[in-house]
Amino acid sequence: MSALRVAVVGGGIIGTAVARHFACHHDATVTLLEKEDRLAAHQTGHNSGVVHAGLYYEPGSLKATLCRRGVDLLHGFVAEHDIAYEECGKVVVALDDRESTRLDALHARAVANGVPDVRVVGADELHEIEPHAVGVRAIHSPHTAIVDFPAVTDALAGELTAAGGTVRLGNEVTWLDDRGGSVRVGTARGTDEFDLVIVCGGLQSDRLAALLGEPTDPRIVPFYGDYFLVPESQRNLVRGMVYPVPDPRYPFLGVHLTRRVDGALMLGPNAFLSLGRESYERRRVVPRDVRDAIGFPGFWRFAARNLPAAVRETRTAVSPARFVAEARKYVPSLETDGVVRGPRGVRAQAMDSRGRLVDDFVITGTDRIVHVRNAPSPGATSALAIAEHIVAEALRRRGLIPEGPADR
Is the peptide bond before 269 cis (omega within 30 degrees of 0)? Predict the structure, then answer.
């Protein structure tokens, strides 16, 4: 039997990992299609670089399983390719007794997920780990790490091409036709036919699914997250990462302090409705994206339920001083002077028509085309494990492997 002709749409870290996994582990000729002139141009290239250890996720869930598997795979991959990776550690800090109660539940979840060496520490030991942080108690996750995710993506692409795969940059998919025995994929540069297409479209995933008549629910509603950069003179205020305890009243985590592998110290992100799905410049407005977001009933239902969160995020969106003030709750010696605006990311937040954030994987399609409609955080951390899972799902749909655990 001839090799399977496979196309993967989307050159973020997940799409690239899927293409690489197919090319390296299965009898397939693989083509990766990316609309930009480089890989990792969107979510992958605009995040904090944190390698999550698995503290937050429901024990036994797919997110938790893929996170822990993904960390192990990523650790081996970066070592093989000599990519910067630092286990700088992370503390999740409780500021008062109410947050301290939530901290115990979070610690129990982390232990159930198999997060290595995670423990609760008191104020004195918190001070030993992060001398400038304050709090009544904290969770310490010493193996939470930071990495250069675009470099990981490039290395994945290198393995893909070494295995005979092809990377086509500047190839935006404009139409899909799933009729007959193959899938036709159209771009501005022409049309190709494939036996199997896997769409990892991220910020455009709902629109790509709509090309084949799939429902627009869940809808991608873009939320931007701004980061601020601390001046070099203050970088020593944080050794690793300082995070807040998640507040169930808010849908997003809130401002935290994170080191990068290049030595920079970042504050952020906040979370606010973006005026464009790919608007990394602060004044760039994309009318179609705005119409799609505010014309979606689910967005208004979400907004109505989250007015306190909206107020909090509005303050940080319009006032850099307020942004820094949020971070100073955890590191009081942080000074506003010298803190400058850093990069902006845009999160592909999947939302259903009831206004609920979709916090799990959504994979739809047929035996010839697989749409990854939602690959939630920690998507970059879990990318190599997500690739295993998606490839196995695609092969199961074609009847090429039996039902059961993900193929590795």
Answer: yes
